[in-house]
């Protein structure tokens, strides 16, 4: 019997009583799990295994898909708040569905996703998560250098096409940057540019 702490990413009904889940485990990474009988009214696991819940689970690894045996709820996001953040949640689930590889654990990404669930997917946390996720997966460069001259100082601009940082000096030469404000993560222009950047990555995969 294996155990892990997981975040439920996807849940698909299968036959009358079962569900096929996609979960992201802290130590096991992303994997598919069969939840037999979970849709029955008396299932102990029924309320625990909802999308974006954080749970401790036990599962049996035999032939075929791993089989959920037990679960214990650790955290469930506020569904009333989530109802109004469907677009922002989709922004996160899309990259986890398409870019995150199966059976490739990443505790940094797991911990950030767990804290994102606890912050109910506010846009600032969503954008911070997306940037760090892309960096962890190798789709973003070094954020401590100017992407043109490699200077480490006066990094006050970001190129919203390549998502690379620019120093004050290079910005004035290329004119191709966006000034980093007090909190760029909540700016609509930043969110949209990141959407476009991610869409391009997903299309190339
Ligand atoms: Zn520079």
From TrEMBL:
It holds the Pfam family RecO_C. GO terms for cellular component: bacterial nucleoid. One of its GO terms (biological process) is double-strand break repair. Keywords: DNA damage, DNA recombination, DNA repair. Residues 3-76 form the DNA replication/recombination mediator RecO N-terminal domain. Signal peptide: none annotated. InterPro entries: ARFGAP/RecO, DNA_rep/recomb_RecO_N, NA-bd_OB-fold, RecO, RecO_C. NCBIfam families: reco (TIGR00613). Involved in DNA repair and RecF pathway recombination. PANTHER family: DNA REPAIR PROTEIN RECO (PTHR33991). Belongs to the RecO family. This is DNA repair protein RecO. It comes from Candidatus Dojkabacteria bacterium.
């Amino acid at each position: 019997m294996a155990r892990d702490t997981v975040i439920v990413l996807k849940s698909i009904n299968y036959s009358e009583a079962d569900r096929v889940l996609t979960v992201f485990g802290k130590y096991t990474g992303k994997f598919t799990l069969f939840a037999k009988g979970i849709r029955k009214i008396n299932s102990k696991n029924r309320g625990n295994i909802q999308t974006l819940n954080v749970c401790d689970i036990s599962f049996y690894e035999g032939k075929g898909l791993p089989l959920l045996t037990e679960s214990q709820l650790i955290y469930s996001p506020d569904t009333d708040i989530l109802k109004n953040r469907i677009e922002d949640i989709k922004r996160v689930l899309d990259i986890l569905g398409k870019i995150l590889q199966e059976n490739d654990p990443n505790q940094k990404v797991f911990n950030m996703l767990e804290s994102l669930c606890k912050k109910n997917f506010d846009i600032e946390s969503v954008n911070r998560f997306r940037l760090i996720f892309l960096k962890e997966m190798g789709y973003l460069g070094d954020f401590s250098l100017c992407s043109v001259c490699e200077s480490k100082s006066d990094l006050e601009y970001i190129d919203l096409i390549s998502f690379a940082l620019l120093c004050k000096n290079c910005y004035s030469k290329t004119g191709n940057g966006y000034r980093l404000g007090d909190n760029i993560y909540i700016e609509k222009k930043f969110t949209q540019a990141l959407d476009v950047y991610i869409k391009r990555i997903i299309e190339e995969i």
